[in-house]
Write a structure and sequence with these properties.
four-stranded antiparallel β-sheet; 10 helices; alpha+beta
Length: 390
């Protein structure tokens, strides 16, 4: 049809469908059985990490030339979505591995890529992302962590807050100020290793949801690192950080999709079995309307997310005409809002049972909330969208 090239309904390929089947089977067999305990005990989902590494699904985004699977953006979305369907905490393993390592992929030297992407691809290390600070959340440009050049090294000092998988990851992409007079253009990016002298971690945060993914402060106390761990040129760190988020906000949308799908699937099964007034509650129009709205919102969120993934892939291939900033923010914002609504409705459909920990939907509702907050609050996403209207 005329103008069809501008219509961007992105349909997964047969390979993507096969990947979904593989990940879903793995998630249901090796991850789902531990999801409730991981949440209840607020412990890292080691079983999930082991299963994902064994199947090469822990960091599928790493390019083949560095030992990775070379998965495209949609494949990465599908992996995260299917894991989040059973355990949101576990889905942060592939999601944050991409978030932490993408600055190296986008802007790092060939030496950095060979040094750090190989172990990530093998499953020997995980990668975290250190942008936020106690006084620099939405205003990331107001960070205070400093990196001072000293000969062939940089010395880093500061505190990073809300760092996902901190203490478990071996590698950290750290944003730090190298020129205080230039604000965002004076921020640089570095790779810091867990074992570097002066690196330490705070106690795990006590969170509402995603309890299996440790969130800690990262302390940098005179951390001396080789100068070749600088990602890109001095002063380009903030730009790299923002480019990274354009791509990785889509992975948060994927996580939201998975959480919402898991809640909808469970609620749909429940209402078909639960009987009141002599018949399944699924036969009541009020319940049917709720399910219809849940499914409608989820499918709209999925199409927007997949469309954004298609744009992410084309930008990675060199296209400069994709409005990725808008679509990445839109996918993250819409999908996370939908997930919060869908999981809340799932709790409602289960009634009193939905409010108890004997059923998984209350966990899904708690997990969904963070998708509206991290990698940029949804209020910030709306600002981003307004500034980048296509």
């Amino acid at each position: 049809m005329a103008g069809s090239a501008d219509f961007d309904l992105y349909r997964p390929s047969e390979e993507h469908d096969m990947l979904r089947e593989t990940v879903r089977a793995l998630a249901e067999a090796k991850i789902a059985p531990f999801a409730a305990a991981v949440d209840e005990e607020a412990r890292f989902p080691q079983e999930a990490l082991d299963a994902l590494v064994a199947s090469d699904l822990h960091a599928v985004h790493v390019p083949e030339e560095y030992g990775g699977a070379g998965a495209d953006a949609l494949a990465t979305v599908i992996v995260i979505e299917e894991i989040a369907r059973v355990c949101a905490s576990s889905s942060l393993i592939p999601a944050v591995n991409k978030l932490g390592s993408l600055p190296v992929i986008l802007s790092g030297s060939e030496n950095l890529k060979k040094t750090y992407l190989g172990p990530l691809a093998k499953g020997d290390a995980m990668f975290s992302y250190c942008l936020s600070e106690p006084d620099a959340g939405s205003d990331a440009g107001g960070m205070k962590t400093k990196a001072v050049r000293d000969g062939d090294h940089y010395v880093l000092n500061g505190v990073k807050r809300w760092i996902t998988n901190a203490g478990v990851s071996e590698y950290y992409t750290v944003m730090a100020v190298t020129d205080p007079d230039k604000r965002t253009k004076g921020i640089s990016a570095f790779v810091v290793e867990k074992g570097d002298e002066g690196v330490s971690f705070g106690a795990p945060e006590k969170k509402l949801g995603i309890k299996g993914s440790p969130t800690r402060e990262v302390y940098l106390d005179n951390v001396r690192i080789p100068a070749d761990r600088l990602i890109g040129e001095e002063g380009t760190g903030f730009a790299t950080a923002m480019k990274t988020l354009d791509h990785t906000r889509i992975t948060i949308a994927a996580q939201a999709l998975g959480i919402a799908q898991g809640a909808l699937d469970y609620a749909k099964g429940y209402v078909q079995e639960r009987k009141q007034f002599g018949k399944p509650i699924a036969d009541f129009q009020g319940v049917q309307f709720m399910l219809a709205d849940m499914a409608m919102k989820l499918e709209a969120a999925r199409q927007l997310t997949y469309s954004a993934a298609a744009r992410s892939e084309r930008v990675s291939a060199g296209s400069a005409k994709e409005d990725l900033t808008f679509f990445g923010a839109a996918a993250k914002c819409f999908a996370s809002d939908a997930a919060m609504e869908i999981t809340t409705d799932a709790v409602q459909l289960l009634g009193g049972y939905g409010y108890t920990r004997d059923y998984p939907v209350e966990r899904m509702m708690r997990d969904a909330k963070i998708t509206q907050i991290y990698e940029g609050t949804n209020q910030v996403q709306r600002i981003v969208m307004a500034r980048n209207l296509p």
